[in-house]
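As the next step, I needed to go through one protein, both as residues and as discrete backbone shape codes, included below for the reader:
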Amino acid sequence: MKKAMKKPISAALAAAMAVSLIPASALASGSENSAIDNDLLAEFDFNTAAENGQFAGGNAVAKVNGSVQLQEKTGGDTALYLDGNSGNYLSLTKADGTSLLTGKEEITISFDTKRARDNTSWIFFAAPDDSEQKYNSEHYFACYSAADPGIRIERYNNSGSRSDAVTASAGENWIHVDVVVTADATALYINGEKKNEVKSDYTIADILGDNSIFYLGKANWTANGEYAQCYVDNFRVYDGVLDEDEITAQYDVFAEQMVWDGVSLPTDPIKEDLALPGTNSAGDQVTWKSGNTDLITDDGKLVAQPKENTEVTMTATINGASKEFVVTVAGLSGLLQEAADALTIENADDVRGNLSLVKEGANGAVIDWTSGDPDVITDEPMSEDSLYDGGEVTRPAAGEAAKEVTLTANISLDGESTAKKFTVTVQPMPEDLDTDYTAGYLWTNFDASGGYEKIFFGYSEDGLTWSKLNKDDYGNPQPVLVNDAEGSDLGVRDPHIIRSAEGDRYWILGTDLHAEGGGAGGSGWDQQNASQNIVVWESTDLVNWSEPKLVYAGFDDAGCVWAPEAIYDETTGDYLVYWSARDKSLNGTDDNALRVYVCRTRDFNTFSEPKVWLSEDQENGAETNIIDTTIAKGDDGKYYRFSTSDWNTVVDVSDTLDADDVFDVSVNPDQSEPDGSWIRLVKRDGQAAAGFSRGEGLTVYQLPDGTWCAMADNGGYTAYLTDDLSSGTFTKSSAASFVDGRFRHGTVMRLSEAEQERLLAAYGEQSQEPEEPEEEAKDPILEYTFEDVQDSVIKDTGAGNDVQDNGTMYGNAKVVYDEEKGSNVLQLDGSSGSYAQLPTGFFDGRDTMTISMDVKSNLGSGNFFTFTYGKDNNSYDFLRVRGTEVRNAITTAGWQNEREVKGSGAVTGTWQRIDVVIDGTNMKLYVDGLLLSENENTGITTSNFGAGVISYLGKSFYDDPYFNGSFDNVRVYNRALSEEEIVSAALEDENVALLKKAVIGTVPEDPANTMGTDYHTAVTSSLDSENKVITSYVRKNADLSAVPVEFSALGSTTEIKVNGETFKNGSEVDLSKDAEVTLTFGDRTETWTLKTPQIAYNPVLPGQYSDPDIDYLDGKYWMYTTTDGYSGWSGTVFHAWSSEDMVNWTDEGVILDLANDDPGLNENGVQICASKWAVGSAWAPSIEEKNGKYYFYYCGKFTNGESAIGVAVADDPAGPYTDKGEALMTVSMCRNAGVNMGQAIDPSIFTDDDGTSYILFGNGSAAIAELNDDMMSIKEGTIRQVNGVTDFRESVVVTKKDGIYHFTWSCDDTGSPNYHVNYGTAESLDGSSVNVSYKYTLLQKDESKDILGTAHQSVLHDPKTDKYYMAYHRFYTPLGTYTDGLGYHRETCIDEITFGENGLMQPITPTMEGVAALEGISVTPPSKLEYTAGEELDLTGMTVTVSYKNGTEKNVTEQAVVSGYEKDKEGVQTVKVTYTENGTEVSAEFEVTVKKAAEPEAVLESITVTPPSKLEYTAGEELDLAGMTVTAVYSDGTEKNVTEQAVVSGYEKDKEGVQTVKVTYTENGTEVSAEFKVTVKAAAPTDTPTVTPTETPSVTPTETPSVTPTETPSVSPTDKPSVSPTKQPDDGKGTPAPGKPVSPSVTPGQNTGSAQTGDASDLAAPAAALAVAAGLLAAAAIVRKRRIS
């Protein structure tokens, strides 16, 4: 919601517009309640200088830090100019010093601004405090300007990722900016027009807190900040939100003022035609009217020169508005006087050579000279076209007196004349002048010292071994000459020394420029607006030098006069002076290259008009420069002119020093014109053939043996030698050395013995008594265990000497207890100013020592020092632990010349012990006891640093971030520890393993000479030290049964065995199965398991290929790449690759060659295409199919080194291709379209749904352009900027899905492990620019897998599977194969892209498996899915198919593992099918049903028999079965009465005695039986027997014979006795029928004994019957009970 203003601001702004150019605060005068007054938090118009170090701004003040300037702006006002130098900015606060923005949620910041450089310039910056900002954790509200994106507003309260910024394009002219801040959004207006708005989840009050800082011109990035180089005016902060009418009113005020911006006329008297501006800066037309056409016409022509100065009014009109400008036309009298005043004779009292008696003076005056003694000084020109009217000097002979001569200059101009006399003294020739220049060598060079570039002297006896002169007592070289001339740029660079032709005068010429060193002031690297002067020193003895003198040698439009040199021309008696410059009148055109200009002088004070001498610029639109010319006169008397053209050496040769013949390669690439006096000996594209490498700043001289030496600088000088300059061929030599560090651009002059003696006496080192060497100590001479710390003092506990070298902590440095170490450690949090310092001078002269420390680094990227000792950012030794990289380097010539040792250590956040052993110039690096690297000769010792050496833990000598991490056990020994000592010390930690590294597979034998394809097999390996397990990845071409293995172990004497056998490194091991590795060192033995390697399908191509572009063409996958491995990305050919599955790729051969005009056929017989415009640097191709053709886009370089994009076309993806013949896209095309561009590289092609094709490209800035239908030309007017691509570096790619344009782009440097891919989306590709909404990082490194530098991507939408893939490159593996140039040692990978439910690409995890990784599994279940309990699983009919990320499938039925089935478990069961390949497991399931088994049919097992009641018989009696029951017993426990079915056998009625009666029952073929016994007695006499009741058998239930199943005899099925069922009637239920006793039948009335009526015996029979019945009932009950149980 908009904040209510106290009074309408629009009213005040309208008043401001009506009273043009009056600041808003001025309008409030006398009005206590003015809205402008009360609602302005701050207002700075910068029209008055700061007072007492601050500007007043209404209710605020702006404190000046460092220095700032007020420079004139249109309309007579002034504006704030910020020069971009460190420390120069403003701090804004309330008038009382408190925070200006505390509690503010809604404000408007309004200002006018103009860029002064293309790079980032922070206009305003507000933050909670002044602490350093951290990437992705920023907390600030700020605005910066840059060529790209223009204006950017950042409102950050970030944690882990960046929120969106507000951006809009802006040109190079003045603009008016309004930044409108509400609680939930930020809007950006430029020139009154709303450009962009971004929502925010937090207010600026949330960001800034209660005590915020507010700067103009500075941001808290890096330890020392980043600064602005720009103009700012009318800076206002409103306490509220301006509406659009109010913003428009503000712009109207600005626009009225700026009508006259860019329209001005000179204020000094004019002597030539006026250059009248035709437009203002906004492009509006200007018409002019002269007030005196007799002197100046309306178009600015100077008609006449009046005798005296005369004013003329020139009236300019723009859109009806007029303004008068008054110019002064210089009068003749004044011009003549100027000519006379300008005429001087240099060294008039000490003439030693020819004089510059010029024939033409200032303002075109004609000068006629008269000499009082023409025999000594002539007054006639040497030739008709001579610059001089005489002036040749003949000096008196040695020993004669000096001679005085009067010279008269008669000066005339348009009929007016005057005269001027000079008296000069001509010195005699010196006696015994030593002109035998065969002694040592002097090298004048420069370096930064004390904040500014200064001149140093170097000396060599042999011309190859160089040391610095003029050292102080500590051995530190000191500058000899300083450029402190009045009006100078404060620095001097590129010094050139020249001896006079007479031999007794010397001059040093230098570039008047300050661009390095950090001191205030200077022009910096501005090649358009720097000094047009050169700075000159003069001496007669090489020791005593004049004060510096600025002399004008340039021309009015010279951007900067660079690298002046001179040579004496005997034919003209003067010196040619030549230097490089841009012509700034050509700025913005294709003709603004650096060229070499030449002029003449005799005194290095007066110079002829310079003219172009050398131009390497060509007519192809690309800028080709030429600089740093030096000339040597060869043994053959010819002059050899060496120059540098964009780091390429070119050489010309001539018989004379012809300054009139111009060498312009666009006119004639082989010789100068018009006379052909200079012939091109080495062309810029022929430097390699000539033996040169990349270099500049050449100096050429002859060595004592006659060999010629050309020294070329590329971060340090390299010598190139030849015996014959005319051959044009040189040999690179390593013989040159610089014992005191790097020399920078200068020249060499050979000395005579006399010169050498004077020079060394003044500047050479004085011999000193050597100090007594320190006695070597066993113990460290310095030791910080951090257990004894008092306040900020770290106590030294080193026992190696008696000196206590305590350290000091600063900032947030603190000692804490570390749980992992179990001790105190020094902890540094990376904040600015947090470090520890060792005593100054401790390392002085320590050429032999060991530095040991335990380090844990929390930093995986960036430039910083972990530990250092040295003097400054030129001379130092430093250790850096960054990610897995451990590097120690020493230099005495800055970072470009560091001599290093480095290797791979532990990952970020891991403790590791580091030992650096220094022994003279030998340097070794150990990590955890393992020797990682050795540099046998760094060429530098600690003594080279001199005295007063400084040392830090956690701080750099550069403007780098501070170290974030921890230290423990910092020790310094005054001797070189042996390997055994270091290993033993490392092994004192039981967590340190003997095995440090394993390389599983092959690596290139000669990495330095390995480019493009190679078939090594090693990828990466990992050591699990805790579990002693080695895992690895190898490429798919590895033979697992014979894998070469290399182990790195602590100690060179460590014994290694594999599978019990002594192992020699490099031997093959069968790793188709795990192997056992045993290491023994002393009494320490370790046993490791070497696991079978997994297969890495990333990288997908064999060897070094990068920048991949992948597509699906003509039924196959195709990929086009940069051929990598070439130093400096200097490869020249492109390969095409094809594949059926994205896993197995075929090299289709070279398709395009940039270095060969006739490359011939490739190995497949296809004609290789030649590029007609490009000469090398074959980078980043792209392919697109359209209209049945295949268009191949590529990067290449022009001969000037500028990159551009080309295109070729073919009918087949494999070629042959035909090149367009010229570049498709160049940097100049972008600039002409108003699009900022670093390099025109990295094309990618996108064709939209409507068939429109676009090319996207860029470096530093991203751009897009529409292709014409021919796909080989750019549609006019379509080159536009792509905005919003946060942190863009290169490689912008777009793909479309579901109506959304998905943008990916690469960030950081390709040589950085943090090279990564960012992601964003756009709704449209239309408009004046394409605006992308940044989302997040899409693809980045995975250090744990050794995957680094993952970017430069392309995207494939696979039409076969509808999947998306990303092809990208990463650092070449195995890591460590290359330690330098990782940015051009890369390999190509492919991984899948997935999309989330929100339609956005999901972050990609880079893998080793790539698209060959298992993705899924599908199972066709077996035919049988239902089982009865107890049945085995039947897999008949089952098929198992696995799928891969590349869309392919494979039947793995035989290899799949089935689990989860339990045959006895009833119910539904899930059966799992698993397949494992290359360490990845996939699984699927199916269900089966197990039913309960059917009740088994009861099986007859036995019978039980209750014997009959009658068991005793008289012989002859039939068997009586009454009372017998037979029960069948079944397997299920049931029983059945089978009495009727049983068969009884074995009874013989006439056989007396005990008999066994068998009862048999048969059912379903099963027969069972049981037995009982009866007794047969002899028959009684024939008398009728009498049976008394007592004789009646009584059977109780307990007496009933029981036959248990165990007693049942086994009856086989074959025993089948037959029993008639009629013998035992029953009731059908297995029990006797009522009334049918089982005892022998007795008929009613039958008397079974003597019967007496009424007698007791009459009751006996019924009683016995009842007893029998009771027994039977009891037996039946038992049977029923058994059935129930």
